[in-house]
């Protein structure tokens, strides 16, 4: 925990070594966040790097009221910046859906906050979320995965709260159908064994 505090202090002082350590430590985490919004690998890498630039420029604004939760607070702040950076990029591109695969090695990045089963579920969920129409996908990501309220989503995306709620309901329905279909296929496969 002391190492994180030292890195944060260095980043707040604009020290290149601390910035590099933070970047290396949280790059995989940031890239996974970006992939939920932008699926073309090369573009996601660019957006993640843009997010780190914003993060380092605004590091003086980072605060943590509970030192025992320093890393968790930092990761939440990183997530917020990455989500906002991805949404800004989608807005610039007029929310054109990104197409492309996520290289397997990205999933191999260790996220120490999740066990292997959680990481597998997360990977499967993101694959299904990727198939959602763009307007449903963005609202689902923001509300369910990143914890934004419908009011915050409406403000960020320039839509009404009702549209946000409707898109979330449609996204959930789509995902439920997908997951139910998979469960039925898996049950049929197991019965044939």
UniProtKB/TrEMBL annotation:
<dbReference type="GO" id="GO:0003677">
    <property type="term" value="F:DNA binding"/>
</dbReference>
<dbReference type="InterPro" id="IPR013324">
    <property type="entry name" value="RNA_pol_sigma_r3/r4-like"/>
</dbReference>
<dbReference type="InterPro" id="IPR007627">
    <property type="entry name" value="RNA_pol_sigma70_r2"/>
</dbReference>
<dbReference type="InterPro" id="IPR013325">
    <property type="entry name" value="RNA_pol_sigma_r2"/>
</dbReference>
<feature type="domain" description="RNA polymerase sigma-70 region 2">
    <location>
        <begin position="22"/>
        <end position="93"/>
    </location>
</feature>
<dbReference type="InterPro" id="IPR013249">
    <property type="entry name" value="RNA_pol_sigma70_r4_t2"/>
</dbReference>
<dbReference type="GO" id="GO:0006352">
    <property type="term" value="P:DNA-templated transcription initiation"/>
</dbReference>
<protein>
    <submittedName>
        <fullName>RNA polymerase sigma factor</fullName>
    </submittedName>
</protein>
<keyword id="KW-0731">Sigma factor</keyword>
<dbReference type="GO" id="GO:0016987">
    <property type="term" value="F:sigma factor activity"/>
</dbReference>
<dbReference type="InterPro" id="IPR014284">
    <property type="entry name" value="RNA_pol_sigma-70_dom"/>
</dbReference>
<comment type="similarity">
    <text>Belongs to the sigma-70 factor family. ECF subfamily.</text>
</comment>
<keyword id="KW-0804">Transcription</keyword>
<dbReference type="InterPro" id="IPR039425">
    <property type="entry name" value="RNA_pol_sigma-70-like"/>
</dbReference>
<keyword id="KW-0805">Transcription regulation</keyword>
<dbReference type="Pfam" id="PF04542">
    <property type="entry name" value="Sigma70_r2"/>
</dbReference>
<dbReference type="InterPro" id="IPR036388">
    <property type="entry name" value="WH-like_DNA-bd_sf"/>
</dbReference>
<feature type="domain" description="RNA polymerase sigma factor 70 region 4 type 2">
    <location>
        <begin position="130"/>
        <end position="175"/>
    </location>
</feature>
<dbReference type="Pfam" id="PF08281">
    <property type="entry name" value="Sigma70_r4_2"/>
</dbReference>
